[in-house]
Write a structure and sequence with these properties.
Elements lengths: L1 H34 L7 E15 L2 E14 L3 E5 L6 H9 L6 E6 L2 E2 L3 H4 L2 E4 L11 H11 L4 H14 L4 H4 L8 H13 L5 E5 L7 H16 L3 E6 L2 H4 L5 E6 L2 E7 H6 L5 E5 L6 H6 L4 E3 L4 E3 L3 H13 L4 E6 L4 H9 L1
Parallel strand pairs: 3-8, 3-9, 6-7, 7-8
Antiparallel strand pairs: 1-2, 1-4, 4-5, 9-10, 11-13, 11-14, 12-13
């Protein structure tokens, strides 16, 4: 009996201590958010100390988001990366206003996200496509345009222009969206997001469940939109594919930001700009020393710092000396390495 009472006491003591720590953490998060008043006029999306706790049981709390801060500049193609459950969808829904019980600040084009006018500047594509079976593609888009408060005189013109831009012919847009392939459904969702001609497109795992061809087609579409000036914010866990298109990124793990950055700046900071792998790396060391070319020798390859002139000279030497070249490539920043280092 005494043991049970003691265990009960210790259990309640632990819960009260956890509750106290939680209150202190929330207080700190509120103070940080209140103190961080800097608004970037060049930012499309700016997040300050976004924190979202939830109670598991009395005295026990978890954090869907824990002091999340990052900035997306206008016109960027931003990758939001993390495993399932990392907090990506929760962050996106907070930006869109689906959640309001968060601590922190969210700015859209320098305005607080809670303001109604900021909603008009965002187009959203969720992961799952749900369409009414009784409407055709054209009817569905017209209905969505009216819900989006697009002026009545512009609705038909806007819908038909999008259908033409996305390559839908008359026989297709008179079908139900539910009859279309997964790739076509994503295009319809993208058209819906573009109805109000927003500055920002937010996409939550948009290429999930698409085959490679459909994924490539979708990425090419949003790449063109980005080149036309749209800010793209896309969440995904398919790193190799995403890295081909994005110019900035944020990696999330367990509700916390592991790293956020701009690819061009990361590449600029790489000391050795090429990777060289030969059948026998020692065959090239004399050439590098003679020309005072900086290098770093690894177990399997060499990282070398080359000007364009030195690069062509080196490749010429390899060809003339008939040295077996296994690999020669640019040494670029690799999001994979950052991601897996943080997740391991």
């Amino acid at each position: 009996m005494k043991k049970k009472i003691k265990n009960c006491y210790l259990n309640w003591k632990t819960r009260f201590e956890n509750a106290k720590k939680h209150r202190q953490k929330i207080k700190s998060a509120k103070e940080l958010a209140a103190a961080d008043t800097l608004v970037d006029a060049e930012a499309a999306i700016q997040i300050h100390h976004l924190t979202m706790p939830f109670k598991v049981k009395f005295g026990t709390y978890k954090y869907a988001l824990d002091d999340v801060s990052f900035t997306i500049k206008k016109g960027q193609f931003h990758g939001f990366i993390g495993d399932n459950g990392a907090g990506k969808t929760t962050t996106i829904r907070s930006i869109l206003g689906f959640y309001s019980n968060y601590i922190g600040k969210i700015f859209i084009n320098s305005e607080l996200a809670q303001l109604e006018k900021t909603k008009l500047t965002i187009g959203y594509i969720p992961e799952v496509a749900l369409f009414p079976k009784q409407l055709t593609i054209r009817e569905y888009l017209i209905a969505m345009a009216r819900i989006s408060k697009i002026p009545s005189k512009d609705v038909i013109r806007r819908v038909d222009a999008l259908l033409a831009d996305f390559g839908f012919n008359t026989s297709e847009f008179n079908k139900s969206p539910s009859q279309m392939s997964s790739g076509q459904k994503k295009k319809i969702m993208l058209m819906q997001a573009l109805l109000s001609n927003p500055d920002i497109l937010i996409m939550d795992e948009p290429v999930a469940n698409l085959d490679p061809t459909a994924r490539n087609d979708f990425y090419q579409l949003i790449k063109k939109l980005n080149q036309a000036g749209k800010t793209i914010f896309i969440s995904s866990h398919i790193l190799l594919e995403l890295e081909q298109y994005i110019d900035s990124y944020t990696i999330l793990k367990d509700g916390k930001v592991l790293e956020s950055g701009i690819l061009a700046e990361k590449n600029k900071n790489i000391e050795y700009n090429y990777i060289l792998e030969l059948n026998d790396n020692k065959q090239i060391l004399g050439f590098l020393h003679a020309r005072q070319i900086q290098y770093k020798q690894n177990e399997k390859n060499l990282e070398v710092k080359l000007t364009d002139r030195q690069k062509f000279s080196l490749l010429g030497y390899i060809a003339v000396e008939k040295i077996e070249l296994i690999k020669f490539s640019e040494n670029k920043f690799n999001i994979d390495q950052v991601f897996f280092k943080g997740y391991n």
